[in-house]
Amino acid sequence: MSDSDVRVAALCGSLRDGSYTRIALEQALSAAERAGATTELLDLREYELPIFDADRDREDAGDAAELAARVRAADTILLGSPMYHGSFSSPLKTALDYCGFDEFEDKTVGLLAVSGGAFPVTALEHMRSVCRALNAWVIPHEAAIPNASAAIDDGEFADPKLETRVTTLGRRAVQYATIEPDPGSFESDQNVGAQGK
């Protein structure tokens, strides 16, 4: 697969109109495009996703089946979220709950988290744990944006080092799209909830 065949999709876990997460993901996707990929922003504001209910078929859960199909079609997925209460956002969790091994197993995933205060480390860790349970391969490089209102001003990065970090994530999304995945994890073996999504 050449870089021009790589498809990168970014799931934005923020619903805010002026979302710093969305701005950062768009920056990462622009870098992926410059590296030759086809990109798509999956803006969760545009999807009707009811709270996940394991008794409801995905096809009967609003736009869940359409979202899962778009995730499944990507070679690399970027997950972006603001940090809420020390973790990632509920819209992103709901979206991930409607996905499973078919969407994530052996897939390359990049992580980006944003916070209004200190580094959003736990949000990144929690997203990484979910990806490990789905047998995804998470890019070692991750993008953390603390103090977002100061880091991003009028849609632009005020700190060139943060901009470089986010841009690098987009490039890595293309570079590692076809990496040979690791063997399945212990977490994935125990993740019966992701079966049959």
TrEMBL record:
Similarity remark: Belongs to the SsuE family. Isf subfamily.
Keyword Oxidoreductase: yes
Span of domain NADPH-dependent FMN reductase-like: 7-148
Biological source species: Haloarchaeobius amylolyticus
Top-level EC class as recorded in UniProt: oxidoreductase
Record carries keyword Plastid: no
Cofactor section: [4Fe-4S] cluster
Pfam family, one: FMN_red
Residue ranges of coiled coil: none
Its EC number(s): 1.-.-.-
Keywords, sorted A to Z: Oxidoreductase
Protein name: NADPH-dependent FMN reductase
Lineage: Archaea, Methanobacteriati, Methanobacteriota, Stenosarchaea group, Halobacteria
Superkingdom in the source lineage: Archaea
GO molecular function, one term: oxidoreductase activity
